[in-house]
Amino acid sequence: MARPKRQEERRAALIEATYAAGKERGLRSLSLTDVAAAAGLTRGAILYYYEDLDALLVEAHAAGIQRFCEERDAVLAGIDDPRDRLGAAIDAGLPDGPDDALLSLLYEFDVLAGNSALHDELVQKLYLRQLDTYRGVIVAGREAGVFTPGLDDEQLAMTFVALEDAYGLHIVGGNALMTVPKAAAAMRAVAEQLGCPTSS
Fold first, then answer.
1. Integer Cα distance of 101 and 99 in angstroms
2. Could you write out the DSSP letters of every residue in the chain?
3. Residue 85 near residue 137 (C-beta atoms within 8 A)
4. N or C, which terminus of the chain has less Cβ within 10 Å?
5. CA-CA distances (angstroms) from residue 114 to 21, 27, 110, 122, 124?
6. How far apart are CA 82 and CA 198, in angstroms?
């Protein structure tokens, strides 16, 4: 019983090493040697768990999406007021800063989507989860009478996801003109103008 658990822990550690090495090197330049160095292992040790770098990247991509979405869902689950929930969704959807390795890699995985059906499917999965999150908040706000948007729920959700991704990309890309507080404030201002205020 101990061996499967140890393998699961080792795979999780390799995924973390992939995020760290990917942030430093970029996905297009990343090699198994880079991941091995970040993990303190040999290339051969990684190949015991993964067939090749592509297999590791697919699992890292899937794990990153799950972590990002589940962590945000957990935050929102404890908030009753849709206005506060929308504000929390905005905050949790933006990177922590330029050094946010997970979100930086998730944005980079978008580049791989055009060359890989598996990555393309994962990019679409993340987009649908982002839409679901915002759509759920919007529906709750409409039903509670605290949101009065002029757009339909789908268009609103798409708008919030587009803003989240655009600002997030500038943040992890190191654009000194875009900070996390500035992006969050802009998204809240847009939300209010669209009839979805983020606070009571």
1. 6
2. -HHHHHHHHHHHHHHHHHHHHHHHH-GGG--HHHHHHHHTS-HHHHHHH-SSHHHHHHHHHHHHHHHHHHHHHHHHHT--SHHHHHHHHHHHHS-SSTT-HHHHHHHHHHHHGGG-HHHHHHHHHHHHHHHHHHHHHHHHHHHHTS---SS-HHHHHHHHHHHHHHHHHHHHTT-TT--HHHHHHHHHHHHHHTT--S--
3. yes
4. N
5. 22, 14, 8, 12, 12
6. 8
pLDDT means per 10 residues, the chain with 200 residues, are 70 88 82 91 89 87 88 92 96 92 83 72 89 96 96 96 96 93 97 90
The predicted model scores a pTM of: 0.85
The tokens for 39 are: 């993990």
- Condensed to tens digits (0 to 9), the pLDDT of residues 107-127 reads 887 776 666 777 788 888 889
The pair of structure tokens assigned to 72 is: 């945000």
Contacts of residue 59, Cβ cutoff 8 Å, sequence gap at least 6: 11, 15, 50
How many alpha carbons lie under 13 Å from residue 42 in its C-beta half-sphere? Answer: 3
Q: CA–CA distance from 79 to each of 76, 87, 157 (Å)? A: 5, 10, 19
